[in-house]
Automatic annotation (TrEMBL):
Listed GO biological process terms: brassinosteroid mediated signaling pathway
Membrane topology category: Lipid-anchor
Protein name per its UniProtKB record: non-specific serine/threonine protein kinase
Localisation: Cell membrane
Pfam families cross-referenced by the UniProt entry: PK_Tyr_Ser-Thr, TPR_BSK1_C
Keyword Calcium among record annotations: no
Keywords, sorted A to Z: ATP-binding, Brassinosteroid signaling pathway, Cell membrane, Kinase, Lipoprotein, Membrane, Myristate, Nucleotide-binding, Serine/threonine-protein kinase, Transferase
Annotated EC: 2.7.11.1
GO cellular component, one term: plasma membrane
Domain Protein kinase: 59-325
Family as reported in the entry's similarity comment: Belongs to the protein kinase superfamily. Ser/Thr protein kinase family.
Catalytically driven reaction(s): L-threonyl-[protein] + ATP = O-phospho-L-threonyl-[protein] + ADP + H(+); L-seryl-[protein] + ATP = O-phospho-L-seryl-[protein] + ADP + H(+)
Enzyme class: transferase
Length: 491
């Protein structure tokens, strides 16, 4: 998988591609147009990056990664007028500064139109940061899983797969065949709507080499045994990406392979794509995904053969990417940062004490208007007992006696005579305080069922997901909560 390539004739596919798929420019060195030339790799000072990110303001956060100590990505604006993405590592990551700098410089030597290139780094004291080109048109996950106007077109899905294969082949040619945690959040779209592979995955998150933060159902089988990423592991992850593109959903490989073996592969296909592709194309893509997902690593194709296989499947090659993606050309501005409320900031920080104060202060005012139809027969001793259990739960909640509060609120909920989203929210926080995030997430979702447009339900889902380390879903819940709260404040 690591064939060598010269500077101008790297990777045989370069000379075979149609100009439309290369956008009439070199994949390396940014083409002949000086305006598009890639910036050289720079070592930034911490002060420069503080200024660019408004002192690492939470409002500039565009994504997070990691478990208890996340490595955060910020949007930044340099003095030269360039937008950048700045990844700030947790302080315990990369204890060896020399190793960090060596890795960053090696990745920073790569320059391709198929990558969101690494253009700099910073290493001062305990601070370790990477600086990459900023991609303004969101992630593949957003366009594929969370679309609003129209599903991603078939031709665009094929182009994403092809460009991603080109990116991996280019990296392999340059001696960087290992990519850590390849997933739909690592594919970004530039101002022209072209998909690019994030350079951040070319570096480990830290010296410990932990490479997969996603669900274990999606990790290569050999990684589960050895904890090591290989070039073949990257191809396995590419196979999971092909499944994403085929289905429009994030399907565990084992489930997909069962459908394929049972000749039910059409059940894999995104129903919104019906009639938009030929059976031959679908079959070919399924066959390629199956090869990538072989249990034995040596039976998987390499990046070069992925490029070969996908080249012949390309459709509408003369149509620019921004047209296929359904976005205006070159007018994309960086996404506005989330203007987080105090509750949103508390969720992001996983500050449960602050959440407790907010919920206590808010009380039950959001329960007003929730239908609780009580028949005359319900005004009985049982009703009184149910209300008493809520009262005792509230007292325990105020006193921060969370185990007692859980018991009392459970009695109230199990009584079944009244429904209160606030009780679910309070019990949710009690579960979080008691290190029971899974139970907490269940209560936050139940609160949403009772009150579908309640920002608090989404905030608490975000808090539970952050604590469980499910970063991408947590960010989505946080965005939804912020959007609902903004809508509510306008009314």
């Amino acid at each position: 998988m690591g064939a060598c390539c010269s500077k101008f004739s790297f990777c045989w596919w370069h000379s075979h591609l149609k100009p439309s798929l290369l956008d009439s420019s070199d994949l390396e060195n940014g083409g002949k147009n000086e305006k598009n030339a890639f910036p050289t790799f720079t070592e930034f000072s911490l002060d420069e990056l503080k200024m660019a990110t408004n002192d690492f303001s939470p409002e500039n956060i565009v994504s997070e990664h990691g478990e208890k100590a996340p490595n955060v990505v910020y949007k930044g604006f340099l003095e030269n007028g360039r937008w950048v993405a700045v990844k700030r590592f947790n302080r315990s990551a990369w204890p060896d500064s020399r190793q960090f700098l060596d890795e960053a410089r090696a990745v920073g030597n790569l320059r391709s139109e198929r990558l969101a290139n690494l253009i700099g780094c910073c290493c001062e004291g305990e601070e370790k940061l990477l600086v990459a080109e900023f991609m303004p048109d969101e992630t593949l996950a957003k366009h594929l899983f969370h679309w609003e106007n129209q599903p991603m077109k078939w031709a665009m899905r094929l182009r994403v797969a092809f460009y991603l294969a080109q990116a991996l082949d280019y990296c392999s040619c340059k001696g960087r065949a290992l990519y850590h945690d390849l997933n739909a959040y690592r594919i970004l779209f530039d101002q022209d709507g072209n998909p690019r592979l994030s350079c951040f995955g070319l570096m480990k998150n830290s010296r410990d080499g932990k490479s997969y933060s996603t669900n274990l159902a999606f990790t290569p089988p050999e990684y589960l045994k050895t904890g090591r990423v290989t070039a073949e592991s990257v191809v396995y992850s590419f196979g999971t990406m092909l499944l994403d593109l085929l289905s429009g959903k994030h399907i565990p490989p084992s489930h997909a392979l069962d459908l394929i073996r049972g000749k039910n592969f059409l059940m894999l296909m995104d129903s919104s794509m019906e009639g938009h592709f030929s059976n031959d194309d679908g079959t070919e893509l399924v066959r390629l995904a199956t090869r990538c997902l072989q249990y034995e690593a040596r039976e998987r194709p390499n990046a070069k053969s992925l490029v070969t296989s996908l080249m012949s499947l390309q459709k509408e090659t003369e149509v620019p990417s921004h047209v296929l993606l359904g976005i205006p050309l070159g007018t994309a501005t960086p996404p506005q940062p989330l203007l987080l409320t105090p509750m949103g900031e508390a969720c992001l920080r996983k500050d449960l004490t602050a959440l407790h104060e907010i919920l206590e202060k808010t009380g039950y005012k959001d329960d007003e208007g929730i239908a609780n139809e009580l028949s005359f027969q319900m005004w009985t001793n049982q009703m009184q007992e149910t209300l008493n259990s809520k009262k005792h739960g509230d007292a325990a909640f105020r006193a921060k006696d969370f185990i007692t509060a859980i018991d009392c609120y459970t009695q109230f909920i199990d009584g079944g005579t009244m429904v209160s989203p606030t009780v679910y929210a309070r019990r949710c926080l009690c579960y979080l305080m008691s290190d029971m995030p899974q139970e907490a997430l269940g209560d936050a979702m139940q609160a949403q069922v009772v009150f579908p447009d309640w920002p608090t339900a989404f905030y608490l889902q975000a808090a539970g997901l952050f604590i469980l380390g499910i970063e991408n879903d947590a960010q989505e819940a946080l965005k939804e909560a912020t959007k609902l709260e903004a809508k509510r404040s306008k009314n």
